[in-house]
Amino acid sequence: MSITLPQLSASIVFPPSEQALKHPDGLLAWGGDLSTERLLAAYQRGIFPWCSANEPLLWWTPSARMVLQFQHLHISHSLKKQLRKIQRNPLGSRQVRIDTAFTDVMRACAGKRQHQEGTWIAEDFIQAYTQLHNQGYAHSVELWEDEQLIGGLYGVSIGKMFYGESMFSHQTDASKITLVFLMYYLALQGVYLVDCQQETPHLTSMGGACIPRQSFEQHLQLVCPQAPIQWQKGFVCPDILDSTTPIAALA
């Protein structure tokens, strides 16, 4: 039996998530554009764009959503050692910063990786999310060493919700360091759940787990209308790692 996938029109209207395909899981529609209005409408409903090279723009809402919850965040012994070093020397060679190199982070995430033939972060995605960033809806967390960008992540922020998009590392655990800082930074503002879209071994090792799509959508209905997260551009004081339970045992 053939299935006709809905094509998005000029109007910013998405099909109900219940109509998403089971194979491939979560594929909801195709077409449309990456305008700020469409992206914001999509994310608030738990929908995100993703496509490979030479494919049309595809929109997804997986039946099982990978999320990282603060209370389940796992920090390995080796990662704790690296975090302690940053805490002890906050103005040293390694610093965590916010929103000082958003497009550079995206381009680093788009770089060819081992065992990958290409990337879904094409130039049109970079332009669209940079526009989101310029309007205050997309943010980056970066790890710098001797003024060189060695790791980071970026994502979308709506209300009290953060949707993680991608991360990169040029040194061991660099992206994990930025993710831990992000989780604490958000927890200080009452944000305890971050969207990770799809399951990966990397995120599972840090405590990520899948929840049903319906539960995820219910969470979005609660947190997206709330006052937005406050983002402080520049240097992030590592003292935030001792500011919030349950993971204060870094010392």
From TrEMBL:
The keyword Ubl conjugation does not apply. Pfam families: Leu_Phe_trans. Its EC number is 2.3.2.6. It comes from the Bacteria. It is found in: Cytoplasm. InterPro entries: Acyl_CoA_acyltransferase, Leu/Phe-tRNA_Trfase, Leu/Phe-tRNA_Trfase_C, Leu/Phe-tRNA_Trfase_N. This is Leucyl/phenylalanyl-tRNA--protein transferase. One of its GO terms (cellular component) is cytoplasm. Belongs to the L/F-transferase family. The lineage of its organism: Bacteria, Pseudomonadati, Pseudomonadota, Betaproteobacteria, Burkholderiales. GO terms for biological process: protein catabolic process. Functions in the N-end rule pathway of protein degradation where it conjugates Leu, Phe and, less efficiently, Met from aminoacyl-tRNAs to the N-termini of proteins containing an N-terminal arginine or lysine. GO terms for molecular function: leucyl-tRNA--protein transferase activity. It catalyses: N-terminal L-arginyl-[protein] + L-leucyl-tRNA(Leu) = N-terminal L-leucyl-L-arginyl-[protein] + tRNA(Leu) + H(+); N-terminal L-lysyl-[protein] + L-leucyl-tRNA(Leu) = N-terminal L-leucyl-L-lysyl-[protein] + tRNA(Leu) + H(+); L-phenylalanyl-tRNA(Phe) + an N-terminal L-alpha-aminoacyl-[protein] = an N-terminal L-phenylalanyl-L-alpha-aminoacyl-[protein] + tRNA(Phe). Keywords: Acyltransferase, Cytoplasm, Transferase. It is an enzyme of class 2 (transferase).
